[in-house]
């Protein structure tokens, strides 16, 4: 789609937001920065011990900004194009335009690039000069950097992070090559137009940095560096295409969410590069004191993952492999707290050890362990990828989580049920409570999945898994027919964020429509309106499930107060506090579209669908939903649902898909 007025995927402005945190980010799976910022981050590169570990600031040569010399203030414009994955700044002066483009390359993931193009608009022949302002200094508070010899015209620095995450642990090394940045650029007397390219390559080894820089130079010399990035980004966008006919603000929010979330995932063709997880503010944020230091939370597994799974299962697998790689750290966490198996950290960085600076969360907010396992279960049901579980460490993780939950429960003689005591639920206004409904329900789901998976893999499963899943207490008020948040919760008590409503979705805990409604009615009015952005999407999903379309829309609308102008950067809290580029909120918002409007539910035997659109939305088209190795194009209007298999599973044992209506009518879905 072309740039221009009214294009919901291009965000333009004539001035930048006053708060630099709200500038757009340019990111790929390995590198990320905010535009005009003098630092960037590289995936998995943290410095600092335990609770102080944070993304290491790498100095960025590409935080430069153009300025037109002379007193007159020229017309300026800024644009984030989500179709091309490119940010641009244009200066319009009498007689010429100067345009700067910035992007994180989407197939050369160790490369970021910036270009400046000056073009004459008239017949004049005098030189045209544009100044480049930069705060770049080749040093860092987090890295011990040394200079190496220049390479192909690039300057070179390298060095290790200062402090390992755990004592004696690894200190990642960073190698960086960059094109020297002059203070100004001049279009000569006889030139009509000229483009200057500035490259920065960052990698964990000298060889990879040099290889990426050389590849970038070759493409730049052929005039195809930006084009190769756009091609890779467009292929990703096409493969994850979600289109909506509805209000412009909703369509813009959708494109913004897709841009920022897809920027954070590994590209389809980089299996050799280990993935380091997604933090709430993404790779561009997470310096010390900012955006939770770049740590990974349940935000990744519960809020972002389901969208990535439906649109790009290869990237979903890479996220799970991050959790498998950090399993040893999770085992250490469990041992240190006196339990068996593996306890995933509330905040995770490179090792899987707990890096939350405040002890209470790591000790009590244990639902994270079940959240991680639910992502594995959703992946298994959607892909039937046995290799992940049989050969790549998935089963060991599932088994360790089941062991943890069994060791964390205690038997109540009085109630003849298992209890989990002394926890903090997702609602962080309460701590040290017993039997959090969400925590216990997610533990039950973990144990049930471990049992089913063991059977499928023909492995022995301890009987206690099934027994404890059956006998764990999930608080329920028989009189009021709703789920109290924990033992002793009094109706009306304020709640920080979505908690019990998550039992309905994504947990799909068995309950009647009446109970589902009562949970929504009970918690909607007492949930803090200043709470985090992902909360309202889960209320919206609940109301869509019950076909209460107006109520769903009024909840979804609350999300818009977390979306900032002009670049659709989300803030965690509507007052602007908390994390920025808040991918967690975007993940919740996308789930309303991908699971709420469609009614998609991932179960062990099928992908259920039951669409519901609020007023003002007339059509939703998902071009490439992945299910059991097939790609489906799903188009939903108010009149019909159209499904087409655009790519059938190449796996012979997979039986062809069928669409089954509630009436029992069956429609075989074959390719095309």
Automatic annotation (TrEMBL):
The keyword Hydrolase applies. Residues 601-647 form the Glycoside hydrolase family 65 C-terminal domain. Its EC number is 3.2.1.107. Keywords: Glycosidase, Hydrolase. InterPro entries: 6-hairpin_glycosidase_sf, 6hp_glycosidase-like_sf, Glyco_hydro_65_C, Glyco_hydro_65_M. One of its GO terms (molecular function) is protein-glucosylgalactosylhydroxylysine glucosidase activity. One of its GO terms (cellular component) is cytosol. It catalyses: (5R)-5-O-[alpha-D-glucosyl-(1->2)-beta-D-galactosyl]-5-hydroxy-L-lysyl-[collagen] + H2O = (5R)-5-O-(beta-D-galactosyl)-5-hydroxy-L-lysyl-[collagen] + D-glucose. Residues 284-490 form the Glycoside hydrolase family 65 central catalytic domain. Belongs to the glycosyl hydrolase 65 family. PANTHER family: GLYCOSYL HYDROLASE-RELATED (PTHR11051), PROTEIN-GLUCOSYLGALACTOSYLHYDROXYLYSINE GLUCOSIDASE (PTHR11051:SF8). This is Protein-glucosylgalactosylhydroxylysine glucosidase.
